[in-house]
Write a structure and sequence with these properties.
heterodimer, A: 482 residues, alpha+beta, 4-stranded antiparallel sheet, 16 helices, B: 486 residues, 6-stranded mixed sheet, 18 strands, 42% helix, globular
Chain lengths: 482, 486
């Protein structure tokens, strides 16, 4: 890390600021401006002709971290600049971006970023109608307040997702702060709303989150391409982890293997921290310590996916540490796989999620009649799984637990969600799950991870291959103290 | 006597680890024994005096699927890794009290056991603190200090978390302040405000300078962690030399380095990777990582892990095609001579200023004997030496920056170098006309007798780099997926 001594600062300040052209692109290449315009048009339709919507972009990162825009801001304009605001004016259906001004010293250090000075460029990249400095935002809101009726003002009430998070987790974090009577911070959204209320009491402030959630639940073709690629990379990571698994390996080393696969394939970050849980660690639903050594005879659960250009996935497999399933492991894992396949074949446009679960339970009850479990506790666990209603799981998109609801009506083309059949054997602290991400297509369903080994034979065969951990031990430092 | 103390320490040491062995993960750090934390707190008691009370706020719950990481200062004083914890140090009683949230069974069911206010005995044993209470009692206990008008010291500077240093943490506060609609105050600012509002009678002072000065001198156990972090950073740079070739993406080296870090148990990155090929190296903190490397590029790589709350900070440069071309050889060669002159001059008992002056003499000789192929290169070399000589005139300018729990670590000291100080040097040679930027960076530890370069196993001479680059690297053996490439 470089810290610039004062003399260097003086030296650089004498340099001309022009011509600092940089090789990397300043703007994403996954979505054309027309797609962002179409998304904004839907927001205009929803808020009506006497309303404004304001979306606050992510704040500057605190520390030596790469900036990541919030999901909702990126969704509406694709711009990756900190402390930016997007104003959507329903009265004239115009979109305005408010950006901080150019900071030359910072650009000298980190490279060019888009600023208020790049108005023409930003307009052409994002398709917005106007670009201004953030200081003009307050002034431009006075206009609508000169005449009645005042427009309504929509802002997202739910916490903005900033990568490797989801709304449920973010609200949980806020609950932690609230429970601490000495940590008086409100949420960033709460502060914005409070500022708006005190500065502009005339506005009726309404929640924009519900509107954006409804848009985000159905994915476009370009979004589906990105989730497909995120799922493929997640699958490749799990395959490499299977190859690398053997007794004596640490959980975090498999995490390292998968992360390597993600990043050489162009994912810059994780969709969430990996759950790499051997033995009874899997019993904890969100075990993330990854500090245990893998033991002969145990099953390992690995649930991990990258953040690939703002889109993620959610994939889980379980496999035996020694490469051979025991008879008991085999019967439970086969049941879960059969469950997944039974769910999968029923997914298509128009199908009702509740009906899919009912019909699958009937089919799987029949499976249990044909395949007797070897122990009464397994019999109880599999019977209980028939009644569990969470096998069709959460939406997946820009967040792993993505926003919006799909389960209360007929499935629509473009909905993306995870299917994760699971069961619990409390007597053995045993938790078995398999998870894949699917998209509802025009006529049926696409399983993004169809190449990823799922059957006992496929997994056992793959595990015979040598993995990165065996072939490339990159360090003579065997294990660290932690 | 000494032996007995050692035995007791050892016994305390083993008990908690074995009690919770069944959890599958450690509940408390193995890197420091309780008496090291107690010794650090004793220095705080000395600094704040009998009228003083120090109150340190731990890090909040992480937002999202991110692992919790305690703040540096809180970890430094007690090692407890629980969100929303408070540490109170009473300067008169010389007692340390920890306030923790109560047990949350729902969360433990999901994530595994977490230390809570209910684990009083265990916490006293592991962290060596004197008392443990629920956070709800902190208000009530502060009343006593308010009654006796004690001075409360609390850190005013931003707490450092994952990949954070104070300079950037202040910048983040400034960025928010510049945004007219971002009303989020700094956590420390709000804490001080809350304390003032609840107990206006208490005099509140800044604890940060006290903690900064303690953290400036590293203990042997801290040095062991810095050494491990440096070792991993260096192994990744060596592997980068093997893996680099035209056609690879900057981010692939980032992936490879993280594999080396995580495979060996690092808990994160010390900072974002600076992997800058071609003209990208012109930007000292270029962190985009999205360029395909080309034949003829000169590559800068600056990256290190966070190993058990301790960081490293190394930089190396290499030609992408494995062979230094004439201009790279000429400028890097000259720079390396100057750089080694600085390394050679560093030793205990001498100020940064004296070291710089000594190095400048050798740089000037080197300048006089080096032939440059272009006038602008000669000008750049002269400018480099002139600037370095000018920096030696400022008695407060250091050699680089401290490294410890933060990459740009805390502490102010411009006196003679003392044992236990750890820092990097990273002078930069620039040719603005061609946007060339040359920088190296090494980790230096001052011992009683010498300056030890912790990263000297990472080659920096041209021959060794070229030799390493001929070997096959990880990226060749485990290339990116070419099918279905988006």
């Amino acid at each position: 890390m470089s810290i610039r001594p004062l003399w260097l600062l003086v030296f650089f300040s004498l340099l001309p600021a022009t011509g600092f052209a940089q090789d990397s692109s300043l703007y994403q290449a996954d979505f054309p401006p027309a797609e962002f315009q179409a998304r904004r048009a839907k927001v205009f339709d929803e808020i009506g002709s006497n309303a404004l919507a304001i979306v606050q972009g992510a704040p500057a990162v605190n520390g030596f971290k790469v900036f990541r825009q919030s999901n909702e801001f990126y969704y509406l304009c694709g711009l990756e600049v900190a402390h930016a605001y997007l104003l959507l004016d329903g009265r004239n259906r115009r979109a305005t971006l408010y950006l901080p001004h150019r900071d030359e010293a910072r650009e000298r250090n980190e490279g060019k970023t888009l600023a208020a000075e790049d108005a023409a460029l930003v307009k052409s990249l994002t398709g917005v109608d106007a670009v201004a400095g953030v200081e003009l935002m307050g002034r431009n809101w006075i206009g609508p307040l000169v005449r009645t009726p005042y427009p309504a003002l929509y802002v997202p009430f739910s916490p903005a997702e900033l990568g490797a998070d989801s709304r449920d987790e973010l609200l949980g974090g806020q609950a932690g702060i609230t429970a601490d009577v000495w940590d008086g911070r409100a949420s960033r959204e709460g502060y914005l709303i409070q500022l708006l209320r005190t500065r502009y009491p005339q506005f009726e402030i309404r929640d924009l989150s519900a509107i954006l959630d409804k848009l985000r639940i159905v994915k476009s073709a370009r979004e589906i391409d990105l989730i497909r690629r995120a799922s493929q990379i997640a699958g490749l990571g799990l395959m490499e982890a299977m190859r690398s698994t053997e007794p004596g390996v640490m959980e975090y080393q498999l995490d390292g293997v998968a992360r390597y696969i993600y990043q050489i394939n162009g994912a810059r970050r994780e969709g969430y921290s990996s759950i790499t849980a051997a033995g009874t660690n899997a019993w904890m639903g969100h075990y993330f310590h990854n500090q245990s050594e893998l033991k002969d005879g145990d099953l390992i659960l690995m649930d991990y996916a990258p953040d690939y250009r703002y889109y993620t996935s959610d994939v889980t497999r379980m496999w035996p540490v020694n490469g051979k399933y025991t008879k008991a492991q085999r019967e439970l894992c086969e049941f879960i796989l059969a469950y997944r396949n039974a769910l999968l074949k029923r997914i298509k446009p128009g199908a009702l999620p509740a009906q899919i679960m009912d019909d699958t339970a009937v089919e799987m009850a029949d499976y249990l009649k044909r395949n007797k479990m070897s122990k009464p506790e397994y019999e109880a666990a599999t019977q209980a799984a028939l009644k569990f209603r969470g096998h069709l799981s959460h939406p997946v998109g820009m967040a792993v637990h993505d926003v919006g609801v799909y389960s209360n009506g007929p499935l629509k083309q473009g909905m993306v969600f995870s299917i994760d059949p699971m069961l619990w054997v409390p007597e053995e602290k045993l938790y078995v799950r398999m998870e894949d991400v699917v998209v509802v297509t025009e006529s049926g369903v696409e399983l993004f991870t169809d190449f990823l080994p799922s059957t006992i034979d496929e997994i056992e065969k793959l595990m015979k291959e040598e993995g990165i951990l065996q072939k490339r031990p990159p360090s003579t430092v065997k294990t660290m103290a932690r | 006597m000494k032996k007995l103390r050692l035995l007791i320490a050892l016994a305390l040491w083993i008990t908690p680890a074995s009690v919770f062995a069944q959890e599958g993960f450690p509940l408390f750090t193995h890197d420091f024994p309780p008496d090291e934390f107690a010794a650090r707190r004793a220095k705080v008691y000395d600094a704040i005096g009998e009228n003083g009370v120090a109150l340190i706020q731990g890090a909040p719950s992480p937002a999202g699927y991110t692992r919790f990481r305690q703040s540096n200062e809180f970890y430094y004083l007690c090692g407890i890794e629980v969100p929303h914890a408070y540490l109170l140090l009473d300067g008169a009683a010389r007692r340390a009290t920890v306030y923790l949230p109560h047990r949350n069974e729902g969360r433990e069911r999901g994530e595994g056991k977490m230390l809570a206010a209910e684990d009083s005995d265990l916490l006293r044993q592991m962290a060596g603190v004197d008392a443990v209470f629920g956070t709800d009692l902190l208000n009530e206990h502060l009343v006593r200090y308010a009654y006796f008008k004690r001075t409360v010291y609390t850190p005013y500077s931003p707490a450092e978390g994952f990949a954070m240093s104070r300079d950037l943490a202040f910048r983040a506060v400034a960025d928010r302040a510049a945004d007219p609609f971002d009303g989020v105050p700094s956590r420390e600012g709000l804490f001080v405000q809350t304390l003032r509002a609840r107990f206006p009678v208490i005099d509140i002072k800044d604890l940060s300078p006290t903690l900064d000065q303690l953290r400036l001198i590293k203990s042997p156990r801290e040095i062991a962690l810095l050494r491990k972090a440096t070792r991993l950073s260096g192994l990744a740079l060596i592997e980068a030399m093997r893996s680099t070739q035209p056609g690879i993406q900057e981010y692939e080296l980032d992936a490879m380095a993280k594999y080396v870090y995580y495979r060996n148990g690092a808990q994160g990155e010390a900072y974002y990777s600076l992997i800058a090929s071609g003209r990208n190296a012109w930007y000292p903190h270029y962190n985009v990582g999205k360029r395909r490397m080309e034949d003829g590029d000169f590559l800068l790589m600056d990256f290190a892990p966070d190993v058990g709350y301790y960081q490293s900070d190394l930089t190396r440069m290499m030609p992408v095609n494995g062979k230094f071309n004439p201009w790279q050889r000429e400028l890097y060669g000259f720079y390396l001579g100057c750089y080694q002159a600085i390394l050679k001059a560093i030793r205990p008992g001498v100020t940064a200023q004296a070291i710089k002056l000594e190095a400048v003499k050798e740089m000037q000789q080197l300048l006089a004997t080096t032939k440059f192929s272009k006038p602008i290169y000669e000008k750049a070399a002269q400018q480099f030496v002139t600037n370095y000589a000018a920096s030696a005139k400022n008695p407060r300018a250091g050699l680089g920056h401290w490294v410890g729990m933060a990459t740009h670590d805390v502490g102010l000291d411009s006196g003679p170098l003392r044992a236990g100080m750890v820092f990097t040097i990273e002078p930069a040679l620039t040719v603005p006309e061609e946007k060339i930027y040359v920088r190296l960076e090494d980790m230096i530890l001052i011992t009683d007798t010498k300056a030890e370069i912790l990263s000297d196993f990472v080659p920096m001479d041209i021959d060794s780099i070229e030799r390493l680059m001929k070997e096959d690297g990880m990226l060749q053996r485990y290339p990116r997926d070419t099918e279905n490439n988006h």
